[in-house]
Write a structure and sequence with these properties.
This protein is mostly helical and about 230 residues long. Strands 1-2-3 form a 3-stranded antiparallel sheet. α1 crosses α2 and α4 packs parallel to α6. The longest helix has about 30 residues.
Length: about 230
């Protein structure tokens, strides 16, 4: 059986963040300014599928207490079903990664001016889940950083930066990434953790404590996580 240790911060954020998944935002007449409305709709459809797979995975994992434990410790049928849901989720990630590469080659990074606020958020979510291709994530982060100010959300930059760092055994910068293990939400190591809330504020994020409390609630964790100092990234 595979190890059942999952990064939870963005799974949770992807499901529960305030994305408009039912249509392109028309706030302040934005819809009239979007250069590629069809691409925005395609991004929305991709994220709909991404979120449907993750929602089922989270609900099943939560109800059967499958998070953060060795799958060998679960009932074999539960472990098999959970593995199937995990594979479905990862399959969506792979399809979206391949598709997004073609989009970027044609249009560049889909920022707000190209696909609107929600479209840009959806594009970020797809690359955030492209964990099987760190080079692609790095290339996307660079393209996002190169866009004019305001075309990409600072929050998205923070999350993707941390995703890459924690996924390559480096200390994250903003404390957005955590994992579930033995029923606890635990942060991946943070560089200069004493000042992390200052960096989070600069990127439009709430405090680290607020973020952890939200994750604990979403995953049904009753005990607070242990301090991040000393944790080792995989």
């Amino acid at each position: 059986m595979r190890s059942n240790r999952f990064c939870v911060a963005v799974f949770a954020f992807g499901i529960f963040c305030s994305l408009d998944l039912n249509g392109v935002s028309a706030n302040n007449g934005e819809i009239a300014k979007i250069k590629e409305p069809e691409l925005a709709q395609q991004l929305r459809a991709r994220v709909d599928a991404d979120q449907a797979a993750r929602k089922e995975w989270v609900e099943f994992g939560t109800s059967h207490k499958a998070f953060g434990v060795d799958l060998a410790e679960l009932d074999p049928l539960i472990a098999e079903q959970f593995t199937s849901l995990t594979n479905r989720m990862e399959g969506e990630d792979k399809k979206n990664r391949i598709w997004l590469k073609d989009v970027i080659q044609k249009h560049g990074w889909p920022g707000k001016s190209l696909v609107g606020t929600d479209g840009a958020k959806n594009a970020w979510l797809l690359v955030q889940h492209a964990d099987q291709d760190r080079d692609f994530q790095r290339a996307c982060l660079k393209k996002m950083e190169e866009l004019p100010q305001g075309d990409v959300s600072p929050k998205d930059l923070a999350y993707l930066t941390d995703r890459i760092l924690s996924g390559t055994s480096q200390k994250q910068k903003y404390g957005t990434q955590a994992f579930l293990e033995n029923g606890k939400v635990t942060l991946y190591p943070i560089d200069d953790e004493e000042h992390v809330d200052e960096r989070r504020k600069a990127m439009g994020l709430g405090t680290l404590a607020e973020s952890l409390a939200q994750l604990e609630k979403q995953y049904g964790v009753s005990k607070p996580p242990e301090p991040a100092n000393g944790n080792k990234a995989p």
